[in-house]
Amino acid sequence: MSRPWADPRRWRHAMVIAALVAVAMVVPAHARQAGPEAAAAPTPADIAPLDADEWNRFAVAIDALRECVERSRDRRTPAQAVVALQALGLAGEMRAQALLLLPADAPARAALAAAGDDAQTIMRSFQAVSGWEPARPIDRARALAYVYHFEAQATAGACLPTSDFLSNYHKALS
């Protein structure tokens, strides 16, 4: 007699879905936390390497991308998002950017480094960056931008980042 629940592939898919559901619940909470503080004028040190104009354009671009991504979530399951990101070959880029963003002493770095395959890398990257609670406004913006940037990639063109988003995202990562 076969035991379908014992199939390791089912468990892996269930873990992927559970992780992405958790990320989907954390990201809007992160966005709400960043909202009131985003209204206060940060100091130049808080937003470096961006200047005030770039910071404002970046914040608007992140919010626009966030709205699109959140509206599109009902059109795909978390597992479909992982599959789409795998098909685009983005697991390595996601890992590299997550490791660039996270502090050297972040516990999530070890879990991300230990990811066994692309699906785990994608899930752990989202989890690591979504679970990070940075103090500086630029780091909070980087974390939100990371999540929405890669989640937008899974929408198959339904959500496209603006040129302001892309240029300031890459500048903020440098």
Features:
mainly alpha, 174 residues, 9 helices
Description:
There is one protein chain. This protein is mostly helical and 174 residues long. 72% of the residues lie in helices and 0% in strands. It is built from nine helices and no strands. Helix 3 runs parallel beside helix 8.
Uncertain stretches: 13-22, 34-38
Order of helices and strands: HHHHHHHHH
State the helical fraction.
over 70%
- Beta-strand proportion: under 5%
How many whole angstroms does the radius of gyration measure?
A: 17 Å
Number of helices: 9
Structural class of the helices, strands and pairings?
mainly alpha
Please give the alpha-carbon distance between the first and last residues: 56 Å
Mean pLDDT: 84
Main beta-sheet strand count, sense and barrel state: none
| Count of DSSP strands | 0
| Tertiary shape | globular
List the helices and strands and how they pair.
Elements: H1 8-39, H2 44-47, H3 52-72, H4 78-87, H5 91-101, H6 108-113, H7 118-131, H8 137-153, H9 163-173
In short:
By secondary structure, the protein is mainly alpha-helical. The chain has nine helices and no strands. Helix content is 72%, strand content 0%.
